[in-house]
Design a protein that fits this description.
The chain is of the alpha+beta class. It has 12 helices and 15 strands. α7 packs across α8.
Length: 471
């Protein structure tokens, strides 16, 4: 039974499933690779033992008479074979018989290649005949090591060469003086052994590619789930905000009239007690009236904010709005009432950037973002707000960046929740309603912030030409 957190989070379920799949693939591939590797090594061991046995059998079949001409050509002082002496005895019956014997072995066992070498590795006799001309031997490093061991009088073999598909055994041949006068080399080609190493290599590559593919699929799945979750959250929040807007619009209209009456009543109350001779009582009544008037004004401001954000100006969406004009105008409007310690810069695109979004709504959203940035830097001696307008592929982008204190992760996670605010006089509706308005137009609102590093709000809108023909 999965924990509740897994049952309620599709991303965790997907991650667990992909992780188990990757683990199963790796374990099964590793097991198969080990099995193939062990099989391949066992085959090479059998090949090596068989090759060494063949070398012993062939070497013992060679009589002293058949090796007479090689013994005669061997120079014990230099440890080399005199090729000119070898040429003199090349026509002896024993030499011809040795050549014929080697040819018969090669004929009866095509997988074996038998040759007699000089101590330096040069070929003396093989199935092609007696080599009276000295040639530079072509030896691999493994051949050199085995050759040196065999010259010392001990049989040796090379590891299986997967590139050439061969393995060789060297067996010392002794002369009349019991010194090593030549070496018997038996080469075995193992065509069946090569595919094992190839399979292991391909299996390893296939496993790595499969693991990479699984990771990519996992990343794509997480992104799709994250987008689906964000879309669901945005839709739910949009429904809540629309319902909230409908309800609060009616309530706000009904509240405005009583607020007006309360304002007049407070003024009449203050005027009625203006002639009281008791200054202490009059001052107390004036203070209470001022507090009541301030609260009424605050409630009226909140009511107007409700009405501003719930007002429907969707008819403006049919007319393309040039952000390079509308955004600087809104920034200039905000600058008139901004504090002198703030520096505000606006940088627009050189070419028109048109979107389908109501100008009144854009002004409301942008003024709200600028006001939030200014209030975040109210306690700082200086502050800066940068507003930019640009194109990004098929989108128009507005960025509002401030040098304020920024937000921590907990605040950033709840910043779009209705009625959530960190300011005593805030309503907690500005960002949530702004996001709802932008989402309704097909755009997106993102906030990037870190504690102590300021905040950046990014607005993205589809360009007007992607939704219709620019007029």
């Amino acid at each position: 039974m999965l924990p509740r957190s897994f049952r309620t989070d599709p991303a965790r379920v997907a991650s667990l499933a992909v992780g188990l799949l990757a683990l199963l693939l790796i374990v099964s591939t590793a097991g198969l690779g080990v099995m193939l590797r062990n099989s391949w090594r066992a085959q090479q061991d059998l090949l090596r033992h068989g090759l060494e046995t063949s070398a012993v059998v062939i070497a013992r079949a060679l009589t002293a008479d058949s090796l007479f001409f090689i013994d005669a050509a061997y120079d014990p002082e230099t440890g080399t074979t005199r090729r000119e002496t070898l040429a003199e005895y090349a026509e002896l019956p024993s030499a011809l018989a040795l050549q014929l014997a080697l040819a018969e072995v090669s004929h009866s066992h095509p997988e074996l290649d038998v040759a007699i070498l000089a101590p330096d590795g040069g070929v003396l006799v093989d199935s092609d005949g007696i080599h009276t001309e000295e040639k530079e031997p072509l030896l691999l490093e493994a051949d050199r090591d085995a050759l040196e061991t065999a010259v010392q009088g001990t049989a040796a073999s090379t590891p299986f060469n997967s590139q050439l598909g061969t393995q060789r055994a060297y067996y010392p041949l002794r002369g009349s003086g019991q010194e090593v006068i030549a070496l018997l080399r038996v080469t075995s080609s193992a065509p069946g052994a090569f595919p094992y190493s190839l399979i292991v290599r391909r299996l390893t590559i296939g496993t790595l590619l499969s693991a990479v593919l699984i990771v990519l699929l996992w990343i794509m799945l997480l992104r799709l789930l994250r987008r689906a979750r964000e879309a669901e959250r945005a839709a739910l929040q949009g429904d809540r905000l629309r319902a909230l807007g409908t309800a609060t619009a009616g309530i706000a209209h009904e509240i405005r009239n009583p607020l007006g009456i309360m304002t007049l009543s407070i003024e009449e109350l203050r005027a009625s007690f203006a002639g009281i001779g008791d200054e202490k009582l009059r001052a107390s009544i004036d203070g209470l009236a001022a507090d009541l008037h301030g609260e009424v004004l605050r409630l009226g401001k909140l009511t107007n904010q409700f009405l501003d954000f719930t007002r429907d100006d969707s008819a403006d969406d049919s007319i393309p709005l040039d952000l390079t004009r509308a955004v600087p105008e809104t920034v200039r409007l905000f600058e008139k009432g901004a504090s002198s310690h703030l520096k505000i810069a606006c940088r627009g695109s050189e070419e028109p950037v048109r979107v389908y979004f109501g100008e009144n709504r854009l002004r409301q959203v942008l003024l709200n973002l600028l006001r939030n940035a200014a209030e975040a830097m109210a306690r700082q001696p200086t502050g800066r707000i940068d507003v930019t307008v640009a194109r990004a592929r098929e989108h128009a982008v507005i960025e509002v960046r401030d040098t304020g204190p920024g937000m921590d992760a907990a605040t950033l996670d709840r910043v779009f929740d209705p009625f959530y605010t960190t300011r005593p006089d805030g309503s907690g509706l500005g960002l949530s309603l702004s996001r709802s308005l932008i989402d309704a137009s097909g755009g997106r609102l993102y906030i990037y912030s870190k504690k102590g590093e300021g905040t950046t709000v990014r607005l993205e809108f589809p360009l007007a030409r992607t939704l219709g023909t620019e007029g």
